[in-house]
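Hey,
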Amino acid sequence: MSGPEPRASVSTRGPVLIVGTGLLGTSLALALRTAGVGVLLSDTSPTSLALARDMGAGSLHDEDSPEPQVVVVATPPDVTADVVVAQLSAHPSAVVTDVASVKERVVAEVRARAGAQARRYVGSHPMAGRERS
């Protein structure tokens, strides 16, 4: 009988700002918190934001919050590029990524609109199933 598997080391201590506290954003925030990473939460929906906070996914991002090292955009694909560009501008020292399931349009828009700041954008994929799986 073996003991629990060792945890992988985490190099990002945060804070990580999660923009979009739906299923993917909150799930990622909870996993980061479990790994000991500081998480800030942002969403245009006060209800989603309060639910994520109440679940222990992180603290609310405001003007007094520390500057994030990483920003994860977890918004619907139709607004992802807009939010990525805004986050690149708002957090000039952070790496910005997203979990949108589409990339070509997002990458093209970010490159066209963010200028040199686009170097800090790293497109990713959610690699997640549906909420029922």
